[in-house]
Design a protein that fits this description.
eight-stranded mixed beta sheet; globular; 42% strand; VOC_core; 4 helices; alpha+beta; 254 residues
Length: 254
């Protein structure tokens, strides 16, 4: 079972903070068929929502702070952002921004887990998050890369109540009977300067074609298309501005 809509505790949204918003729009519109619309209000700061048909699937934004990395960020749905922020700090994490209201659409906070990975909390009001999940061009999987997996399990199960399905090679996160993400232990193959982070994966019709299209559009392949035994075909890509993301096609999608 996979998530097809946001649920409490699960991933509900993903945002790209980029150094070149116009170029990022062109890249992802070409890669995934998105239609990006920028909020015209000055106080929105250039926040742009990408759509597939009528469904909102992701956001692209300028960098709002000096030193902010070009990166994708993942948001998790919570019923009460203030209460969730308290749970984050009680469990050993840190709240970096908020909680604060976003117009009338919701309330959010930015936090970092005890292993150094940044994530966001989203309390929906008029905007629940992604209108489409686990469909081509939409978010379908999120992966935590960390150097302290045991501490990460302790933290996220405490804050969100996730189930943990651990095997010898991979740990999967789940909620309400659906696995929605996983965890990779960062070993010596990862440069020391790369921090722990959450990596979004977008569903695609063809991983190999998408990877080739990304390179032709000025991006790069960080992990070549690979078929996971009894699992999906995946690749990890980098956009022209440096943001890293994954793409996948589930094994049961023929």
């Amino acid at each position: 079972m996979k998530l097809d809509k946001p649920v409490t505790g699960g991933p509900c949204w993903t945002e790209l903070g980029t150094s070149d918003l116009a170029a990022a729009k062109r890249f992802y519109e070409g890669l995934f068929g998105w239609r990006a619309e920028t909020d015209p209000r000055g106080e929105a700061g250039g926040y742009s929502i990408a759509h597939l048909g009528d469904a909102a699937v992701a956001a692209l934004t300028p960098l709002y702070q000096e030193g902010q990395p070009v990166a994708w960020n993942v948001s998790f749905a919570v019923p009460d952002a203030d209460a969730a922020a308290t749970q984050v700090t009680d469990a050993g994490g840190t709240v970096l921004v908020g909680p604060m209201d976003v117009f009338d659409v919701g309330r959010f906070a930015v936090a970092v887990d005890p292993t150094g990975a940044v994530f966001q909390l989203w309390q929906a009001r008029s905007f629940p998050g992604a209108g489409l999940l686990s469909a081509p061009g939409a978010l379908g999987w999120v992966e935590l890369l960390t150097r302290a997996p045991e501490r990460a399990v302790e933290f996220y199960t405490t804050v969100f109540g996730w189930s943990v399905n651990a095997s010898e090679h991979y740990t999967q996160w789940g909620i309400e009977g659906a696995d929605f993400g996983g965890m990779v232990t960062m070993d010596d193959k990862f440069p020391h300067e790369v921090p722990a982070h959450w990596l979004p994966y977008f569903a695609v019709e063809d991983v190999d074609t998408t990877a080739a299209d990304a390179t032709e559009a000025g991006g790069a392949i960080l992990m070549e298309p690979t078929s996971v035994p009894d699992g999906p075909r995946i690749a990890v890509l980098r956009d022209p501005q440096g943001a890293v993301f994954g793409v996948y096609r589930a094994a049961d999608e023929k």
